Amino acid sequence: MGDDQAIRFGVIGCGGFGLFALQHFVQVPGVELVGMAGTHRDAAKRAAARYNIPDIEDVEALVARDDIDLVYISTPPFLYHPQAMLALEASKHVICEKPLVLTVEQADAMIALAKARNVLIVANLMQRYNPLIDAVNRLIESKPLGEVLHGYFENYAADEHLPAEHWFWDRAKSGGIFIEHGVHFFDLFEGWLGPGRVVAAQQAVRPGTDLQEQVQCTVRYDRDVLVNMYHGFHQPSRMDRQKFRLLFERGEVTLYEWVPTRLRIHAVADEAQTRTLCELFPGARLDVTQLYQGQERRCRARQENLEVWQRLELTAGHETVKYDRYGQLLRAMMRDQVAWIRDSDHQRKVTEHNGRASLVMAAEANRLASGCP
User: Fold this and answer.
1) Could you report how far apart the first and last alpha carbons of the chain are, in Å?
2) Which residues contact 89 (CB under 8 A, 6 or more apart)?
3) What is the pLDDT of residue 15?
4) Beta 262-269 vs 251-256: how paired, if at all?
5) Domains and CATH numbers, the chain
6) Per-residue pLDDT tens for 351-367?
7) pLDDT over 90 (residue 39)
8) Which of 29, 68, 101, 201 could bond to 365 as cystine, CB 3.0-4.6 Å?
């Protein structure tokens, strides 16, 4: 496909998030929205009017159109597999909202068909495009704080707009919290620490109901780093909050919000390590909270001698608005996939591997949490 030829896409499903994503996908140069299917909700009708889409079609009609190259699926997860298979059979590229699908077997079938048709199938794991995530990855690799020892993610999420009848609570439709939501974070930590294995998981239901509202798990990564992840959907919207933390040998890094925009580093360091931190996070605020002199610079940890010149706090990203960053990530994801459509030698940041690997981990967490052998 030539660089000057527009990538024409159709969307299946266009609720609140689908509309938010469309607002950013259509801003990517060379991408054109031409069709909509699979929903007749008011939000979809308003979106169709905004983008001058004359009809909201049946899914079968949309994927059969010759003027559509790519299909974006933003329906509830239990519909991803049948809808994606229809689109792939028609040799359309497919981007699904996360998760890629509900089961690993379904994922393998979709990936196999995509390869046979020479088209892409990816989940919208847009966290990989976050520049703050990239900077933390460089921090891990360059080791100014030493090795990573432990991590956690705490997600105190709102359920204010998720009534009991919402498909989110129906695990047959959503897959449950680990699959519907947790895949983002399984994928993100794999990007930082390499492949991992879920070694323990638990779940809790809301008293008096069968609604799974809390889950947690422990993942052991190849670096022998243990990471604890908690997701609970029980907060009012104004108290929705998230926190990542990575513990290193000489300090810790904390990131805030589920699309991280802000970062805080608390550490001890010498001058060279402090300079590296400032280079990794240009524009960050550096506060030295304690200076060490002479013998004070010598300390020990993990049975090793250390020399530290100062204790510091480094903060970054307070000027960043979450939804501005969110839109930036969606546009970056679409640009990356479109680049591959135009040239299959392009190395994408997110591929079918990400969707499958994160689903494998989520499915294992589900199995352990449910007590299955």
Assistant:
1) 49
2) 63, 113, 117
3) 73
4) antiparallel
5) 128-324 (3.30.360.10)
6) 999 999 999 999 999 99
7) no
8) 201
